[in-house]
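Quarterly update from the structural biology core.
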Amino acid sequence: MPTMFEGSYLGDGSRISDGARLECGICWHVYDPAEGDEVWQIPPGTPFSALPEHWSCPNCDAPRHKFMVVDAL
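Predicted structure, tokenized:
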């Protein structure tokens, strides 16, 4: 299991709200559910917890567990 760090959602999607924005801990790319992800063809309104398991940062390819919650709307 990957090492988790403070600020991460600890791999548990139920710990984050549907409107939460998360930031990549590697390149600082922000996933905003209101915008979705054009690179991965994720439609707007898709919460981070509903992203496919194989999804990774569209900017640097970091895995999901490297993302930290920045806004818990």
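Residues 56 and 64 are 6 Å apart (CA to CA).
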